[in-house]
Design brief:
This protein has about 350 residues and is an all-alpha fold. It has a single domain, classed as Farnesyl Diphosphate Synthase (Orthogonal Bundle). The chain contains 16 helices and two strands. A two-stranded antiparallel sheet has the order 1-2. The longest helix has 26 residues. The chain is globular. The N terminus is likely disordered.
């Protein structure tokens, strides 16, 4: 079942990451070298399993944020390289744990690590990557950096637990949902960006601006992810349509459809998401209800709002190539819905 979205105003040329990736290409190559080096272990399964996920085609979006933010702030050193790798280790560790919790069989179009090696190995290697991340933080030597990234790790874990608590609860409100995605997704975006200003020793105003940019970009990114779960476009991203629905996850599209529906429709949502009593036809009906109540298109509009806030946050910085690429990144994250 394809997501039908009004394409009026869709850009002739879709935004992409090409410009941003080109600007940080040399730095990103160095980051990948750090990642490979830090994944080494005499325990053969660790580099094998971690390498499976790291090499599976991810865009390295979060470490790229660190690299681009640092360069936008005029940083000329190299501290941002290992710290960007640290950000990727934290992200990769959370993916390993998430796939176990969600019982996911695919990750970026390939078999997930837990599908190949099992849940126990995935959890333990995820723990290893978290440990590697903290070793990198300590090696950097800056207490402020250690605090930012360690705090982010704790908040991400809290966000995942909050999401677990809201699963199957159709009474979950928009405020609770926003709290969940701010913690589990936006927190690492924010930390990744903020580090760029910290290593460049920029004023607090610039640090706060990058914090705002990352937070709002991360919220927009997750909102679009939640729309994509009900879109045929998922297949292009190596994911199956309706995973969130089958797992009883509460996202903004389901919240809007539930709140705007009649009692019969709410009974449907309670049966499928709370009781987890689902038939083969229920996903298609769920998408029909979301389309009827504009839940998907309105979620995209919310993402555009947060994207606009992210753009505004960069207004404090002088124009340069990195700033322009970070502004275009906002468009890329939102236009993924089409």
């Amino acid at each position: 079942m394809a997501l039908v979205v009004d394409l009026e105003g869709e850009r002739q040329k879709k935004p992409n990451l090409d410009k941003l990736q080109a600007l940080v290409a040399d730095d990103l190559k160095a980051v990948n070298e750090v990642i490979v080096q830090r994944m080494e272990s005499p325990v053969a399964l660790i580099p094998q399993l971690a390498g499976h996920l790291v090499a599976s085609g991810g865009k390295r979006l979060r470490p790229i944020l660190t690299l681009a933010s640092a360069r936008m702030c005029g940083y000329q050193g190299n501290r941002h390289i290992p710290l960007a790798a640290c950000v990727e280790f934290i992200h990769t560790a959370t993916l390993l744990h998430d796939d176990v919790v969600d019982e996911s069989e695919l990750r970026r179009g390939q078999a997930s690590a837990n599908a190949v090696w099992g849940n126990q190995a995935s959890v333990l290697v995820g723990d290893f990557l978290f440990s590697r991340a903290f070793q990198v933080m300590v090696a950097d030597g800056a207490i402020k950096v250690l605090k930012i990234l360690s705090d982010a790790s704790a908040v991400i874990a809290e966000g995942e637990v909050m999401q677990l608590m809201t699963t199957g609860d159709t009474a979950t409100g928009e405020a609770n949902y926003l709290e969940v995605i701010t913690a589990k997704t936006a927190e690492l975006f924010a930390a990744a960006c903020r580090i760029g200003a910290v290593v460049a020793e920029r004023p607090k105003a610039e640090e706060d601006a990058l914090l705002s940019y990352g937070t709002n970009l991360g919220i927009a990114f997750q909102l679009i992810d939640d729309v994509l779960d009900y879109s045929a476009k998922q297949a292009e991203l190596g994911k199956t349509v309706g995973d969130d629905f089958r797992e009883g996850k509460i996202s903004l599209p389901t919240i809007l459809a539930f709140n705007r529906g009649n009692e019969a429709e709410r009974t449907f949502w309670r049966r499928t998401l709370e009781d987890m009593d689902q038939t083969d036809d229920d996903l298609a009906h769920a998408i029909t209800l979301m389309t009827k109540h504009h839940a998907l298109s309105d979620t995209v509009d919310r993402a555009r709002h947060y994207g606009a806030v992210a753009r505004d946050a960069l207004g404090i910085f002088p124009d340069n190539a990195q700033k322009q690429a970070l502004l275009e990144l906002v468009d890329f994250c939102i236009e993924r819905a089409y």
